[in-house]
Amino acid sequence: MKETIVVKIGGNASDQLPTTFFKQLETWWLEGKQILIIHGGGPQISQWSEKLQLPVKKINGIRVTNNETLNVTKAVLLGLVQPKLCQFIGNAGLPVIGLNASDNHLLEGKYLNQAEYGEVGQVTKINKKWLQEELQNQIGILAPLAQTHEGQWLNVNADMAAATIAIQLHAESLVLLTDVPGVLNSGKVVPKLTETVADDLFQQHIIKSGMMPKIKASFNALRNGVNQTFITNDLGRPGTQFQYVEK
Ligand SMILES: Nc1ncnc2c1ncn2[C@@H]1O[C@H](COP(=O)(O)OP(=O)(O)O)[C@@H](O)[C@H]1O
Ligand SMILES: CC(=O)N[C@@H](CCC(=O)OP(=O)(O)O)C(=O)O
């Protein structure tokens, strides 16, 4: 079976993708790898929520989402962020398809903690067979939303969605592309990060906010069979590589 690479692009990163991003995608594509991109859009959702005078609240990097925020999230991710990314990648001469949870039951999910976060979920199941077929012919760009078995849409943190999907696809690598060159400690990138060191940086409040779901997602992926996980702002540089030590 072809090697699969899952790349998550944060909302900040998606507005200013460097040439190296498209070059690396092209290299992987020409090498015959399957590529799935999960896109975020957090800053864009916050911006539109503010314009619409809706509350913007995150707990540990997870957006508290009521029904109105859920509608804004769907509109922004599927109406603004995803088409723009498809356009950029298509303009780079690569075959691409935009995807969402409702395509052939692509992403099923369940509530994370409705009392705390509202209409927020985690991915529980993917339509792997159909997705693998789609990825044979084109690069997939998928939004981080899921649907419950009953059809209720859920907002999913894109880092967490990317990790679960990478696990279910038995991906070789998961790359979290963001607006910082890796996990930073005193202004320097930590090149290799174990869970013990990550816990320590978290206790010291050096790892916080949007970095928290990324750390959790990266170790979750490694624990469950993904061979390599990275956080970087440039696909040409490894940034921080996560190291899983079995306990
Ligand atoms: N130790 C850390 N190293 C680097 N970034 C950190 C750290 N702790 C918190 N952050 C924050 O995490 C942000 C990346 O998360 P986020 O804004 O959610 O990005 P994305 O939109 O790519 O998911 C960085 O811009 C930075 O502000
Ligand atoms: C539940 C939850 O937090 N969902 C995220 C989905 C988008 C996202 O994760 O975007 P970034 O990767 O750009 O942060 C949100 O509403 O912001």
From TrEMBL:
Domain Aspartate/glutamate/uridylate kinase: 4-233
Residues annotated as binding substrate: G41, G42, R63, N155
Swiss-Prot/TrEMBL site (Transition state stabilizer) positions: K8, K214
EC category name: transferase
Primary localization class, coarse: cytoplasm
Alphabetic keyword roster: Amino-acid biosynthesis, Arginine biosynthesis, ATP-binding, Cytoplasm, Kinase, Nucleotide-binding, Transferase
Pathway: Amino-acid biosynthesis; L-arginine biosynthesis; N(2)-acetyl-L-ornithine from L-glutamate: step 2/4
Its biological purpose: Catalyzes the ATP-dependent phosphorylation of N-acetyl-L-glutamate.
PANTHER family recorded: N-ACETYLGLUTAMATE SYNTHASE, N-ACETYLGLUTAMATE SYNTHASE, MITOCHONDRIAL
GO cellular component assignments: cytoplasm
Protein name: Acetylglutamate kinase
Record organism: Companilactobacillus heilongjiangensis
